[in-house]
Design a protein that fits this description.
- This protein is α/β, with parallel strands linked by helices and 311 residues long.
- It contains 11 helices and 8 strands.
- The chain has one domain (6-34, 51-69, 108-306): Aldolase class I (TIM Barrel, Alpha-Beta Barrel).
Length: 311
């Protein structure tokens, strides 16, 4: 992952991506953004900003696959359309948002993930275009997604057993596609974290390549010891671990972010995720860089930030 260029990413299989993350030994940064949100920088999309601050993977949250929109893609001067055709054969005219997943990949050179959510019994109902169905998963992959993340947003009432069932039903349909699954917070359901080691093993057995585990210090009760035991269960089952910062601490100070990152790395995280609620649908940009510097130093952080998408 540390050495991937945009031209490599376009040729990666699912197995290649998993191996690339494994070989990076805990030095992979995933940044989640709210796809339809107004970008922090106005005319520059949040995925582009995330990559510019050091993200290796970009995960799109709240992307409705029946009406997919990514904020920041519309440029009135037509330069974006010119870029897409000259470099990557184009994905529709500028401003039409025909394929925001492919556009995000083209503009960042990063593998792009998409969140999908099982139906829960909470106050917030998930729209059909965001639900964790095989149909939506296939549509996301056809549009260019390299990673599907089966998880739950706040107040949806989705439990861990719902996620396990969704992963199991999708795995048979999808073939060589990377699936990440788990929770970043309780999502309005009763999800005692003390059962996380068992649940993590179940997710891998159900077909997940990567299990999401809340970073120590981000949800009540997720200690360094519990995180490490859950991560060990995932690794013993053959999976990867994605630590998550999904409780708005992506908007904390840089010292807190660095501490969270080091606790997760000590506990066995292969990928470190930072959430979308710092500012306008993205983490505080400097915190993306702070997380990256904490787990892999300035050299690899600056390499990722400086790497051209034309490579």
């Amino acid at each position: 992952m540390l050495d991937l260029h945009a031209s490599h990413v376009r040729r990666l299989t699912g197995r290649d991506l998993v191996q690339s993350i494994r070989l990076a030994e805990g030095r992979t940064v995933a940044c989640e953004v709210i796809a339809p949100a107004q970008p922090l920088l106005g005319d520059i999309s949040n995925p582009e900003l995330a990559k510019a601050m050091g993200a290796d993977l970009v995960i799109l949250n709240l992307l409705d696959l029946q009406n997919p929109v990514l904020g920041g893609l519309s440029n009135d001067d037509g330069l974006e359309e010119l870029f897409r055709w000259s470099f990557h054969q184009g994905h529709g005219k500028a401003g039409q948002n025909r394929n925001p997943i492919a556009a995000a990949g083209d503009l960042t050179g990063c593998p792009i993930g998409v969140n999908l959510e099982p139906k829960g019994d909470g106050a917030v109902k998930v729209p059909p275009g965001r639900t964790a169905t095989a149909e939506n998963a296939k549509r996301a992959v056809e549009m260019g997604a390299s990673l599907l993340v089966i998880t739950a947003n706040p107040y949806t009432g989705v439990g861990m057993e719902d996620i396990v069932r969704s992963v199991s039903s999708m795995r048979e349909e999808l073939g060589d596609v990377v699936i990440g699954a788990g929770k970043m917070h309780a999502a309005g359901s009763d999800s005692p974290w003390r059962d996380m080691p068992r649940a993590a093993s179940e997710l891998v057995r159900a077909g997940a390549d990567m299990v999401l585990i809340p970073c120590p210090g981000t949800v009540p009760g997720m200690s360094e010891d519990l995180f490490a035991r859950a991560a060990e269960a995932v690794h013993q089952a053959g999976g990867l671990v994605m630590s998550t910062i999904g409780t708005s601490q992506e908007g904390a100070d840089r010292g807190t972010i660095a501490r969270l990152a080091l606790m997760a790395k000590m506990g066995g995280a292969d990928v470190q995720h930072i959430g979308d609620s710092g500012y306008s649908g993205i983490a505080v940009p400097e915190n993306i860089m702070a997380l990256s510097v904490a787990i892999r130093g300035r050299r690899h952080t600056l390499r990722r930030m400086a790497r051209s998408i034309a490579r």
